[in-house]
Write a structure and sequence with these properties.
Layout (H helix, E strand, L loop, with lengths): L2 H7 L5 H28 L4 H9 L18 H14 L1 H20 L2 H7 L1 H4 L4 E4 L15 E5 L2 E12 L6 E8 L9 E7 L5 E6 L10 E12 L10 H37 L1 E2 L2 E2 L4 H29 L6 H25 L1 H4 L6 H9 L8 H10 L8
Parallel strand pairs: 1-4, 2-4
Antiparallel strand pairs: 2-3, 3-7, 4-5, 6-7, 8-9
Helix pairs in contact: 2-3, 2-4, 4-5, 4-8, 5-8, 8-9, 8-10, 8-12, 9-10, 10-12, 10-13
The protein binds flavin-adenine dinucleotide.
Length: about 400
């Protein structure tokens, strides 16, 4: 058993969770991993892979039993994300985005909203989380999308950019500003926009460096009339919902990173054990062993912290903003370094498409950019140590 196998074995799962993960491993091995390179190169939406996850009933795990789902502990959810990401990062991202988009509805929605809006997700529908706008990225409070109340409806006017699964989403968790509130922060509100709402359109899909099989959409809202019943909480509750949502989606990003990093590391170990130069295996060079040591250590320590944060979330701890930031930032830097080293260890072959570490390095980069860039996370963590002057 390697140190990484021991870390996997140390994650406590109950029998049902272990069985689900076992079935998921089979689907990843037989369907998702073999399709990953093809979808990356064609840029098509990975329907075969997503359908295979749905055949396993995997979307139901986002949704509590009371609303047509099966529920799953956060630790087990992260273990699933990590497993899928090791097979195909695009597919894992699509699946995890359902969680990122719908968890705030589960945590903050009313019984009526959950009963009405969640079953579609449990059946295999897509969720999306729409915050970013062309001129409001790192500073979400700069968003311009406007929510104007009109009787039993809210009229939505504006646009969003870079929205993962925005074109396929059945339920879009949409952030905007309440027209009757002046303050940039206090006005932020959140509602669920349903697929097919008149006035909602997809302006385009980005062509990207990585995660090519996951769609990243620019969206427009032209006087969309959304039932007031779809508002989450009260007007102005948006930032509260957003911060709580990010505290859970950032560990989920870390799980995407760890799956990808583990896959790149496994490919590297196999390659350097096999490839020979100067009459000996590449791994027999001490410099190569040092690289493997650093890669394995970074993955092990980062992932260990991920399971700790997951346990805090399961225990109901909510003041975990700094921990979530540290975890997302460290996991993103780790997967970037590990995948870059994986390409290096493969030599010229690592730079070529046939060897999957090329795709993995491209897929890794976005983790340092989304869910708060790593500069923003360093700022958030550093700021938490500022003391009042004169104390
Ligand atoms: C593939 C992809 C998928 C995405 N999916 C989603 C999604 O599903 N939903 C969604 O809402 N958004 C999504 N995003 C948007 C993503 O979260 C933003 O791109 C990210 O928050 C950064 O915003 P920005 O691109 O506008 O960069 P900017 O905010 O313009 O930043 C540019 C650079 O300036 C730095 N910078 C900015 N402010 C500061 C500061 N105060 N201090 C130090 N440095 C700073 C940044 O770190 C960065 O290096 C996605 C983006 C991509 C590319």
């Amino acid at each position: 058993m390697t140190v990484l196998d021991r870390l996997t074995a140390s994650v406590a799962l109950n029998d049902a969770e272990a069985q689900l993960l076992d079935s998921l491993r089979g689907v990843c091995r037989d369907v998702i991993a073999p399709n990953a390179a093809r979808y990356d190169q064609s840029g098509e939406f990975p329907w075969d892979s997503v359908n295979a996850l749905n055949a396993l009933g995997l979307n139901a795990v986002f949704v509590p039993e009371a609303y047509g789902g099966a529920g799953l502990r956060f630790t087990a959810y992260l273990a699933c994300v990590r497993e899928i990401a090791a097979a195909c990062s695009s597919t894992a991202l699509i699946w995890a985005t359902n969680f990122h988009g719908m968890k705030p509805l589960i945590d903050f929605g009313t019984e009526e909203q959950k009963t009405r809006l969640l079953p579609r997700i449990a059946e295999g529908g897509f969720g999306a989380l729409a915050i970013t706008e062309q001129n409001a990225g790192s500073d979400a409070t700069g968003m311009k999308t406007r929510f104007t109340p009109d009787g039993e409806h809210i009229v939505v006017q504006g646009s969003k950019t870079f929205i993962t699964s925005g074109d396929v989403a059945d339920r879009l968790l949409l952030f905007g500003k309440w027209s009757e509130i002046d303050s940039a922060k206090d006005a932020i509100s959140v509602l669920v926009l349903e697929k097919g709402t008149p006035g909602f359109s997809v302006l385009g899909i980005e062509k990207k460096m990585g995660h090519n099989a996951s769609s990243t959409a620019a969206l427009a809202f032209d006087d969309c009339r959304v039932p007031r019943a779809n508002l989450i909480g009260k007007p102005g509750d948006g930032l509260k919902v957003l911060f709580a949502a990010l505290n859970k989606s950032r560990p989920s990003v870390a799980a995407l990173c760890m799956g990808l990093a583990r896959a790149a590391f496994a490919r590297s170990v196999a390659y350097v054990n096999d490839r020979k130069q100067s009459g000996r295996r590449i791994i027999d060079n001490q410099g190569i062993q040092f690289m493997l040591a650093d890669m394995a250590t970074e993955i092990t320590l980062t992932e260990s912290f991920m399971w700790k944060v997951a346990a805090m979330i399961e225990a109901g701890v909510t003041d975990i903003g700094v921990e979530s930031s540290m975890l997302k930032m460290k996991a993103a830097d780790t997967v970037m370094k590990v995948t870059e080293d994986a390409v290096q260890l493969h030599g010229g072959y690592g730079y070529c498409r046939e060897y999957e570490v090329e795709r993995m390095m491209r897929d890794a980069k976005i983790h340092q950019i989304w869910e708060g860039t790593n500069q923003i996370h360093r700022q958030l963590i550093g700021r938490s140590f500022i003391q009042k002057e004169g104390r």
